[in-house]
Amino acid sequence: MSGGDDLPYRDALPYRLVATDLDGTLLRPDHTVSARTRDALAAATAAGAAHIVVTGRTVPVARHILDDLGYEGLAVCGQGAQLYHAGEHRLLTSVTLDRQVALLALEKIEAEVGPLFLAAARDGLDGEVLFGEGYRMDHDGMSLVPFTEPAELWSQPISKLYIQHAELGDDALADAARTAAGGLVGVTMAGTGLVELLPLGLTKATGLSLAARRLGMTADDAIAFGDMPNDIAMFGWAKHAVAMANAHQDLKAVADEITASNAEDGIAVVLERLFPAAASG
Prior knowledge:
By secondary structure, the protein is of the alpha/beta class. It contains ten helices and 14 strands.
């Protein structure tokens, strides 16, 4: 799904890099990709563009989806923490969350909002997702391990923490976490029930810029598609940013364009316009 460097008309392309989020963007509500969207991406890559998946999912949680898609290019996973070569099933780079800093951040957040329900994604190609009592976990593609003792959460390197609250909604919890601990960790909201604590300064933009450099590209080459607040930094990095119709209002507010929803082939709608061959697939 990535374009070659030997095509003479690459520089004439509207965009040389197509960056797509997974959930709520590339994936339909049933977690599949339509034939129309597949054809549109294939036409873009055949023209010489590169397609990079940029997802909040860590590699172990994203890998089965990428395999099902037949995706063999670079993937930015874990909100930018991991650069993964899907075709080689190889983790190229990985950034972990300092566990002492994370623990301090949790203490500060809980001092403001009360007890939190916790989960954590362990680092690595086969990292498990630990979840504690009360945490509402989506089982899709995750290797889940319950924990009862807090020490278990910190026993191995982790990519990120997930937090939930008994009363606060996702937006309110994310805002409270930023206020209490924004100087220690990054805070993002990646979907329903997915407020995440990350290494400070880490975003999808940092991971995507690293992937782009490996391909000899820059932000000026990129068009990005997304649906949630964790895509805001990526939108700020890319030359052109496209929010799905089903996107969070905070993301729509910073988008250059709003397309159809993920259930209505929103990515294909844009790519067919930019790469006309996509419309005839």
